User: Fold this.
Amino acid sequence: MSETQKLMAAVIGVFVIGFIMVGVNKQKSTEEMESASMIRAYSSMQTMANQKCPKAILEETGEQVYFPTSTQSDKETYLTLKYEGESGKFKKASCTLRLAQGGISELIIDDKVLVNKPEK
Assistant:
């Protein structure tokens, strides 16, 4: 084998090893995939709650709400948004969304329970 062929083989070997190293490093661990899944689930739960809760409060009270005053969640199964009325049509509202049910599971406006779907 000539010196040129040896050099070409060495360069090709370096490229092959580089591609293998990049491929191995791109594989995600189980923990990384689980945490990414939890983040996506929480994000979708927040998005759903921010769409459904203000609409439900508007239908019940006639007052449009935009931003919750507080939020409670275990970041896995439920999200509760609490609102305070501004124009006097209601004082406080609480809207709970459970991921397993896929919608509003509890809506309370001024201590009056309007929606109460028990957990399955």
The longest helix spans residues 30-61. The CA atoms of residues 46 and 101 lie 14 Å apart. DSSP finds two helices and five strands in the chain.
